[in-house]
Write a structure and sequence with these properties.
single chain; 430 residues; OB fold (Dihydrolipoamide Acetyltransferase, E2P); 4 domains; 5-stranded mixed barrel; 13 helices
Length: 430
């Protein structure tokens, strides 16, 4: 049971989140773009109030209610059917037809079942009946019946000639909803490219002139790491390490996948809390070693807190390196809760927050997770701590009564029912 509301604002915040989710889709709401600014404003003010805890306790609760309301609204709106513009790609392709597309490759090519798959963010289309290209938007998944194309780089613009069509709708109950899976990835059109010659680059990669990393740098790094594995290992080992390290199971042979599935250890190939805890352990030990080399820092700040604060950006980058898959994203959220609690000296509150997050984070990422079930690599809906084990915190009583006075014989009875002067019964299996 949660503690008193005036000390823990989690329960009213969750109710505000649910209220925002129920409000999503109303006609009187403004567009989603205008809701991000107040959400960011409330989040910044809540952080400032949190820094002045407990003096600003009332202000924090006042800010958390609209913040979580907006978060629930934005999150639910992201799963509703969007209002597509008239120039969207899906509105220009009512039936199967050949067309020329230009767009940006947003993910590294994936080779699976003897075919190469691409995802293109389109910006123009040339239809056979049109005299000039039309501006468009939307994503399309392209399939080429050739081995992995190594010359394609995420973030580069390409000109593609393909036969486009809409994904097949679900017809038989119980079968895989391919159209729904693509829609969850914001893909509503698919295409078939008959030959790699029909894929040509139309611009070079633009160099980043800012301190921020270039767009799609994580996808390029994933692609380079995949090429490194296949260049130095056998195809079977390269595919296995590719699944274990970056969460891409496309390199696994059907025989290896079936062996893991038959032995019940398919979850090992799904990057989740067990992988994240190894990275967290190594990075925390490394940063703790570095911090200990500076005595003037140790006199001013906690070495453990500094190591954890430096380790979290590394964990975030690793989550992106793994493709932001639902299991590892969920583990990152839980890890962030504990790191925040340690940084704010509220380790006791971390147990309470994690107990509630354990109940609600499955629904938070469950719809995304269901879209990846066809790979057989996603773990169950239960939330897990970074170590990969299910978290079942002990139940907290609504309030303990004062210990009863000792009897005349000198034996006090605990609320649990056993005398004070006798040891408690042994825990089963302990």
């Amino acid at each position: 049971m949660l503690p008193q509301t005036n000390r823990n604002p989690l329960l009213p915040s969750l109710l505000a989140f649910a209220a925002g989710a129920m409000t999503a889709g109303a006609d009187w709401l403004p567009t989603i773009t205008f809701l991000w600014l107040p959400t960011a404003l409330f989040a910044a003010l809540a952080v400032l109030a949190l820094l002045r805890w407990p003096q600003a306790q009332v202000w924090l609760l006042t800010l958390l209610l609209p913040l979580f309301f907006l978060c629930g609204l934005l999150y639910t709106e992201s799963f509703l059917a969007p209002n597509l513009p008239a120039h969207h790609l899906v509105r220009l392709i009512p039936e199967k037809q050949d067309a020329s597309l230009t767009g940006k490759l947003i993910q590294k090519p994936v080779f699976k079942n003897g075919k190469t798959y691409l995802i293109l963010e389109t910006d123009s289309i040339l239809l056979p009946s049109a005299q000039a290209p039309l501006a468009t938007t939307g994503r399309v998944t392209l399939t080429i019946n050739v081995p992995l194309l190594k010359g394609l780089v995420p973030g580069q613009d390409y000109l593609v000639r393909a036969r486009l069509s809409l994904p097949d709708k679900l017809a038989t109950p119980g079968v895989f909803d391919y159209a729904g899976y693509l829609a969850a990835e914001e893909i509503m059109v698919k295409g078939w490219v008959s030959t790699p010659i029909f894929i040509q680059p139309i611009s070079s990669l633009a160099a980043s002139h800012t301190l921020l990393p270039a767009p799609y740098f994580l996808e390029r790094f994933r692609q380079q790491f995949e090429a490194f594995l296949h260049a130095n290992l056998t195809p079977g080992n390269a595919g296995l390490y590719q699944a274990l390290l970056i969460g891409d199971s496309s390199g696994l042979s059907p025989e290896v996948s079936e062996m893991y599935r038959a032995t019940g250890i398919m979850h090992i190939l799904a990057i989740s809390g067990s992988h994240l805890v190894v990275v967290a352990f190594l990075t925390t030990i490394f940063f703790r070693f570095l911090v200990n080399r500076f005595p003037w820092l140790l006199l001013r700040l906690s070495a453990t807190k500094m190591a954890l604060a430096l380790a979290f950006p590394v964990l975030f980058l690793y989550t992106g390196f793994a493709g932001f898959q639902p299991p590892v994203a969920r583990s990152l959220i839980m890890t962030g809760v504990f790191i925040t609690a340690i940084l704010m000296d509220r380790q006791g509150s971390a147990t309470i927050y994690q107990n509630s997050l354990f109940r609600y984070c499955s629904g938070f990422l469950g719809s995304i997770e269901r879209s990846h079930q066809e790979n057989g690599l996603v773990q169950g809906r239960g939330c897990r701590v970074p170590g990969g084990l299910p978290f079942n915190p002990p139940k907290m009583g609504a309030g303990r009564k004062a210990n009863p006075p000792c009897s005349q014989k000198g034996a006090c009875v605990f609320p649990g029912g056993f005398p004070r002067n006798k040891p408690p019964p042994a825990w089963p299996g302990g």
